[in-house]
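Z., the sequence and structure:
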Amino acid sequence: MESPIWKEREELLTSVPGAGKKTAQALIAELPELGEANREEIAKLVGLAPLNRDSGTYRGKRTTWGGRTAVRSSLYMAALSATRFNDKISAFYHRLMDRGKAQKVALVAAMRKLLVMLNTMVKNGTKWNPDLHTSSS
């Protein structure tokens, strides 16, 4: 990370509990739209937005798929870590589990929440502040 802009982004991203250096580097390298897209767009780019499988009158399932694999893989590991060490993500994850959601479903929701938080932080140029990020969905 030679560029001062990249270094600044890396510092912002690694300030979040659960997001380490490798996650930050993957996001910076594979997702140049980070900080410029809104929450729906960034989720679609990474493949964390539910897509429907409808045809005519048939209503299929809504699943998350596609997107940038390297970013999604990095976010998966970051979300696993965040469910243990980030109070906000952990509370969100456990609330979904208590509602009866499957473990993978809750983890993908935590991945999306983490991605939206990281995107907003880069957009605003602010470091992690647990008081600013609510645990509500």
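The chain has a mean pLDDT of 89. The first helix runs from residue 4 to 14.

Let me know what you think.
H.
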